[in-house]
Input
Amino acid sequence: MQMPEGAWIELEASDGTSMRAWLARPTDRAKASGLIVFQEVFGVNDHIQEVCERFAAEGFVVLAPEVYHRTAPGRIFAYDDYASAKEHKLTLTLAGLEADFKACAAWFNQDRQTEGMALGTIGYCMGGRLAFLANAMLPLACAASYYGGDIHTHLDLVPKLHGPHLFCWGGLDAAITWEQRPLVVEALREAKKPFLDFVISNAHHGFNCDLRPAVYSGAAARQARGLTLAFLHEHLG
Output
C-alpha cells in the first residue's frame, strides 16, 4: 500500500482563532469522502499523522485538527507526560470544540476533492470523545470512537447524534470501566440510534497505538481496523 504524504494546513475558526490541521489525501481519485481524525490527548503527533495517511491510502481525504491551538499551538506531548497534556485537555470547551468542528466541516465543503461528498469522523482516546461530540454537532454520515473516555458524561447529546456510531473498546481498559460502557450503549439503544459496540476483551486502553508498547496490541488493532474500514466504507462510500 502506497502511503500518501501529509502536510499541515491552516484553518480559521469562527471565534477568530487559527488552527493547524494535518491533511492527507488519496492520490488516485478526483473525488473522495472526508474523514476528521481526532487526536489522543498527546497531540497531532507522528502516530496520528500516520493514522491519517493510512486512511488516505484507503481512499479518504483526512484532516486531523490541533484542538489545543488556543493554549498550546504546535505542541506535542510525550507519552510519559500525561500530566502536561491533561492541563490543555482541561481547557477545552464545548463552544470552542464546536467552532473547531465546524471549521473542519467548512473546509471539506469547499475543497475540490470532497465538495458534495459524505463526511465522517474517528477519534482515539480523548479524540474518541470528540468524535462522539462531533457526531452530535455536525451532520455526519458516521463516526467512530476508539476507547473514548468520558463519553458517558455526555449522554444528553445522544438524541442529537446524526450518523451511525462505532465504539471500539479494550476490555482491560483501566480508565473506561465495564460499568461505563453499558451506559453509553443503553442510551443509544433507548434513543433508537444505530451503533456498533465492539469490545476486545484482552486489549488495553490505547491498543491501537504502536508507539506505546506497554498497551499496543497488533491483533486488536488489526481486528478493530478491519471492522472500522468496513464501517467507514459502508457509510462514506
Notes: The helical segments are 46-57, 82-89, 94-110, 126-137, 180-190, 218-236.
